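Following up on my earlier thread - several people asked me to post the actual chain instead of describing it. Fair enough. Here it is, all 77 residues.
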Amino acid sequence: MLLTILKQVFINLLIPVATKTISEYIKTTDTKKDDKLLEVSKLAIDYLAEQSNNTITKEISNALSNCNMITCQKSKA
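Reply from S.P.:
Thanks for posting it. Predicted structure:
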């Protein structure tokens, strides 16, 4: 029981921090961690597709799960 309570407290502290961190990253022009952002997006959409309190469907989740980052070589200017 104590472990469950600690886990919930920990989650309730980390989710706002993670959300703020991701939001700030999106506002920058940095693209070094875009693959991680896609990974988080896939996990979040997959989770939300299982819930009944939104309009995200399994089809949307499956479509996103098939997406990949494209590795592009920077031009030598």
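The chain has two domains: 1-30, 31-69. That should answer part of your original question.
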